[in-house]
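Hi R.,

As promised on Friday, here is the backbone we talked about, encoded as C-alpha cells. Could you run it through your design pipeline when you get a chance and send me back a sequence?
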C-alpha cells in the first residue's frame, strides 16, 4: 500500500489543473512544470528509442528544478541527519535525488487514468500548501483522494518538499520515507540505507 501511494504521489507531482494564476505563485510554479512535462510527453517518442533517454533526462531536469531535495532528504532522515557527516549527507541526498527522478521519469510515461481538481492554495510567509483532489480508479471504482503539496520559498523560488494524501501527515512522502529509513537504520545503519537505495536505483535503470 505504501509503495502504491508513493508511486501515485510522484506520478501526480507535476499534474495540476490549468489556471490563470501567475507563475510566481506556488500554483503557478506547479502549472509551469506541468506544462513543460506535457509538452515533452506529447512528442510520443517510442519506448526504447534513442530519443527516449534524452526525454527522460529532460523530465528529470524539470522535476529537479521543482523539488527541494535537501529539505526532503533532511526531513526523511529526521533524527539520523545529525549523525551524518557532511560527505554522508551529500552522498545520501544525491542518490535519493537520482532515485526519485528516475522513478518519476519512468512513471510519468505510464497510462494513468485520473482527473485533477484544484481546490486552493494557502501561503504563510515562506511556506505554502497547494490542495488538489485526484479522482482515479481504485479497486475498479472511481474514488477521490486529497493531495496536498507542501512548498517552501527558497532563494525566491517555490519548491516542493512533501506530498501528503487525504489530509494525513503519515501518508506523505516524508513520513513514508522516514518510516522505511528508520527500519533499515535500526538494523544496518547508514550503510544499509545506502545499499537499499542504490539497489533500487539499479532496478529503476532496467
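Update: got your reply. Pasting your designed sequence below so it's all in one thread:
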Amino acid at each position: 500500500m505504501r509503495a502504491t501511494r508513493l508511486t501515485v504521489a510522484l506520478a501526480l507531482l507535476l499534474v495540476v489543473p490549468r489556471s490563470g494564476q501567475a507563475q510566481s505563485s506556488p500554483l503557478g510554479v506547479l502549472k509551469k512544470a506541468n506544462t513543460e512535462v506535457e509538452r515533452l510527453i506529447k512528442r510520443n517518442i517510442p519506448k526504447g528509442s534513442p530519443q527516449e533517454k534524452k526525454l527522460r533526462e529532460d523530465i528529470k531536469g524539470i522535476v529537479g528544478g521543482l523539488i527541494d531535495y535537501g529539505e526532503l532528504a533532511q526531513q526523511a532522515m529526521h533524527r539520523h541527519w545529525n549523525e551524518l557527516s557532511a560527505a554522508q549527507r551529500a552522498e545520501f541526498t544525491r542518490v535519493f535525488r537520482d532515485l526519485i527522478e528516475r522513478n518519476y521519469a519512468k512513471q510519468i510515461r505510464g497510462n494513468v487514468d485520473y482527473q485533477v481538481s484544484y481546490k486552493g492554495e494557502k501561503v504563510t510567509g515562506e511556506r505554502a500548501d497547494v490542495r488538489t483532489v485526484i479522482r482515479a480508479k481504485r479497486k475498479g471504482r472511481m474514488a477521490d483522494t486529497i493531495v496536498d503539496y507542501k512548498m517552501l520559498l527558497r532563494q525566491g523560488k517555490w519548491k516542493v518538499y512533501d506530498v501528503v494524501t487525504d489530509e494525513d501527515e503519515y501518508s506523505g512522502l516524508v513520513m513514508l520515507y522516514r518510516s522505511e529509513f528508520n527500519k533499515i537504520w535500526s538494523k544496518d545503519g547508514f550503510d544499509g540505507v545506502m545499499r537499499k537505495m542504490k539497489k533500487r536505483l539499479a532496478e529503476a535503470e532496467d
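One thing I noticed while checking it: The mean pLDDT is 80.

Thanks again,
M.
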